[in-house]
């Protein structure tokens, strides 16, 4: 049975969310933004109209999210009062509390996602590390983990490019994940993921260590300005398809985009290579490859801003992009994040996409650090 202190805590956190989210201000803002959608010729520019509708929807989601929390918190108070009159059981009070606290924590977590890019869709790329079949198998396990995560959260996941391993697994894959705050929730997955297990590919049954890197970038739309210099671009085409037979594509629909990127801040140059085999339509694949390039260039600008922020606020913990972030130790039944020290023994659950605990721990420690 919950205590009066727990009841007081949930009411205070609900009131705090009302203030943090400025719910009254958002209600006024929704009315103003909805008026714009009623202007004559609103749909003449479809992309601008869709952006405006997305803005209205985003505001409405914050309001409805808070309303749900408020309703559940009120129900806890009601159940608590009814229990005194013996109208409900202890279990019913605790059940109402469990629902309310879960809703409060979910909204508190979403409130940590305040950066411009957080609300965007994202591109998640997985590359196998050195080690051949072992690391390629590990990369395919990570791909499955993220696809399951996307599915359970109602996100749409599209594999934009996939290169299978020589014997098993994958060498690399690119997944586009679409849905509310997809980048905000998944940005903390950026880095090197380490697997320790008794290898099924090793006859001696030795314990092996494998690595795979995960890169997460926001998927930008036409409302974000990104400077692409055409002179720095070059294209190749190739046949895309599966293992053979009817799956082989007889035309060169796959596209390979090379972009000679020059860092505007350091002057350093690097080649960005993007391959897209998402469809059998070459022009469509070109369009998708360009969109991925815009996303990568936007992400580079974001990383520069983060680096500058880290210099200014040297006392705060730095987010190390590209470093080893998490270990998955199968025989010890342990998955541990090295940045937050969050860990779990539910290895099977994690590999089935249950990574919310890691995401929450990361966001609570690092998100909003630039505020």
From TrEMBL:
Main location: cytoplasm
Gene Ontology MF terms: translation release factor activity, codon specific
Organism ancestry: Bacteria, Pseudomonadati, Bacteroidota, Bacteroidia, Bacteroidales
Matching NCBIfam families: prfB
Domain of life from the UniProt record: Bacteria
Species assigned in the record: Bacteroides muris
InterPro entries: PCRF (IPR005139), Pep_chain_release_fac_I (IPR000352), Pep_chain_release_fac_I_sf (IPR045853), PrfB (IPR004374)
Cellular component, GO annotation: cytoplasm
Modified residues (N5-methylglutamine): 246
Protein name per its UniProtKB record: Peptide chain release factor 2
Family: Belongs to the prokaryotic/mitochondrial release factor family.
Post-translational modification: Methylated by PrmC. Methylation increases the termination efficiency of RF2.
Main function: Peptide chain release factor 2 directs the termination of translation in response to the peptide chain termination codons UGA and UAA.
Keyword Endoplasmic reticulum among UniProt keywords: no
UniProt entry keywords in alphabetical sequence: Cytoplasm, Methylation, Protein biosynthesis
Localization (cell): Cytoplasm
Domain Prokaryotic-type class I peptide chain release factors per the UniProt entry, residue ranges: 239-255
Keyword Cell wall biogenesis/degradation tagged: no
């Amino acid at each position: 049975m919950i205590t009066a202190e727990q009841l007081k805590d949930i009411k205070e956190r609900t009131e705090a969310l009302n203030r943090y989210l400025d719910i009254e201000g958002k209600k006024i803002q929704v009315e103003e933004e909805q008026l714009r959608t009623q202007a004559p010729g609103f749909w003449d520019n479809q992309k601008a109209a869709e952006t405006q509708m997305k803005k209205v929807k985003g505001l409405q989601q914050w309001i409805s999210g808070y309303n749900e929390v408020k309703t559940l918190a009120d129900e806890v108070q009601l159940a608590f009062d009814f229990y005194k009159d013996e109208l409900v059981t202890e279990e019913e009070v605790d059940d109402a509390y469990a629902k309310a606290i879960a809703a409060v924590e979910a909204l508190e977590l979403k409130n940590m996602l305040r950066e411009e890019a957080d609300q965007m869709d994202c591109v998640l790329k997985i590359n196998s590390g050195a080690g051949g079949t072992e690391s390629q198998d590990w990369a395919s396990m990570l791909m499955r983990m993220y696809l399951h995560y996307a599915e359970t959260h109602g996100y749409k996941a599209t594999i934009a490019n996939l290169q299978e391993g020589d014997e098993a697994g994958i060498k690399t894959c690119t997944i586009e994940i679409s849905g509310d705050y997809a980048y905000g929730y998944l940005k903390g997955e950026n880095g090197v993921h380490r697997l320790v297990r008794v290898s099924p590919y090793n006859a001696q049954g030795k314990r092996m260590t494998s690595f795979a890197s995960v890169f997460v970038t926001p998927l930008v739309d036409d409302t974000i300005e990104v400077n692409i210099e055409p002179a720095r671009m070059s294209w190749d085409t190739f046949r895309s398809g599966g293992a053979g037979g009817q799956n082989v594509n007889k035309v060169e629909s796959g596209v390979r985009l090379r972009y000679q990127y020059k860092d505007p801040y350091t002057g350093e140059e690097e080649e960005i290579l993007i391959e897209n085999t998402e469809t059998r339509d070459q022009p469509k694949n070109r369009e998708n490859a360009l969109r991925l390039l815009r996303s990568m260039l936007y992400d580079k600008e974001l990383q520069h801003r983060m680096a500058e922020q880290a210099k200014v606020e040297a006392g705060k913990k730095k987010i190390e992009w590209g470093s080893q972030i998490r270990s998955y130790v199968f025989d010890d039944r342990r998955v541990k994040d090295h940045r937050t020290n969050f860990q779990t023994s539910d290895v099977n659950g994690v590999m089935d996409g249950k990574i919310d605990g890691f995401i929450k721990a990361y966001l609570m420690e690092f998100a909003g650090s630039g505020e």
